[in-house]
Specification:
With 241 residues, the chain is an alpha/beta fold. The protein folds into 2 domains: 180 residues, HAD superfamily/HAD-like (Rossmann fold); 52 residues, no CATH class. The protein contains 10 helices and 8 strands. The strands form 2 sheets. It has a 6-stranded parallel sheet. The protein has a two-stranded antiparallel ribbon with strand order 4-5. Helix 5 packs parallel to helix 10. The longest helix is centred in the first third of the chain and has 14 residues. It starts with a strand and ends with a helix. Belongs to the HAD-like hydrolase superfamily. PHOSPHO family.
Amino acid sequence: MKFLLVFDFDHTIVDENSDTWIVKCAPEKKLPNGLRNSYRPGHWTEYMGRVFVYLGDNGVKEDEMKRTMTTIPFTTGMVDLLGFIGENKELFDCIIVSDSNTVFIDWILKAADFHKVFDEVFTNPAAFSSTGYLTVQNFHAHHCAKCPKNLCKRKVLKEFLDKQLERGVSYTQIVYIGDGGNDVCPVMFLKKNDIAMPRQGYALEKKISQLAQDLSPVECSVLVWSSAADIMSYLKVLIKE
């Protein structure tokens, strides 16, 4: 009897986008227009690479970035939810699949002492170079036309489940908690017994209801949440069953 919880990070665990939060470190807390307008759809990681170069060029150091990132607020109820999951780790395996980066997620989870709640974090690898600039790379290469170039969350989830099966671990149910358009692909991979939990008012909820209108609904159950307390209520029912 084990459940797999799959979390997105930005606008799910934290109530902001970690990649745009870092702009608070920039001169006047904003980016030049030329840089802001250089983003191309599907190429967010390359764009963030340019943002990190700009911050480095302006003398923004690692400790300042870390201080800024650890002030990002958690979503309402999330601190209690992660505490609850941490107390029930024998029932829950818990992973993050995110388009953020390893440095940001690591800083934020460790500052709040939540890093032990998660078994694995799948996100874009980042590191500081010898010159003190933050660098970021694409998580992997894939052939999914629906997803951004650097990350197909369905592929990550499928590979994780395959690896767990090789270790003899299978799950009673997968609970997928997210908010964004790039969460649609993994949600469409979920089976009848699984559950997708889209955040109310965000892109994932809208896209799931659009799929239902287009008569190609997702196979799994759908439960919308607005506070992480809604997720905790569901998990409490789940473990009582």
